[in-house]
Amino acid sequence: MRTKSRIVLPMVQMVTAAGLVISNSRRPNTFASPPSAHLDIQYCWALNCPAAMIAYLQRTATYELLKWHYPLNSIVDWGTFFSLVWLLWYAISIEIGGKGLSVLTPKTGVRRLADVLAIAFGAASWVFAGYISRSVGWAVLLTPVYMIWVMALIGFYGHDLWASFRSPEIGPAGKNPPT
Q: Phi then psi for 68, rounded to 5 degrees?
């Protein structure tokens, strides 16, 4: 059952993201109404906020290098975005099995640093959400989705960081170990 959810959740999100991207690509591209301003692509980015933020940074970093290579530019942009969407939701499907604590950060060997970096990433997502929400007319609809991501990242990894400072005899997340 666990293995299925680790494949099904990312696959459903990939299909959802692809449907929203295809829906957006079928709209006319005009100066007054660019494709990036439509609700479907904005919702796709909000639904996959951490992946969209990294993809945005990649797109910004490689713009000058790839701007004259149209097919390659699109392949890199969308390939990066969809790869990150898959990775994001695969990581979420793994973290769901942690019963309230992170499964991935203890495996890094520097759990507390990984938790702090994840909290910082949540704060960066907050800044990204504010930037994106101000740049489009859909802020009322999109801001709650972005804020759910921000609260989830900061809350989950904040709780995991707090639990890492608990004494071992108390057990994970303040629960007493079985005797």
A: -95, 0
